[in-house]
Amino acid sequence: MPKLLLNLRNVPDDESDEVRALLDDNGIEFYETLPSRWGISHGGIWAARDEDAARAERLLADYQHTRRERARAEHAAAVRAGTAETFATLLRREPLRVLLAVLGILAALALVALVPVLLWR
Question: What architecture is the 1-84 domain classified under in CATH?
Answer without folding.
Answer: 2-Layer Sandwich (3.30)
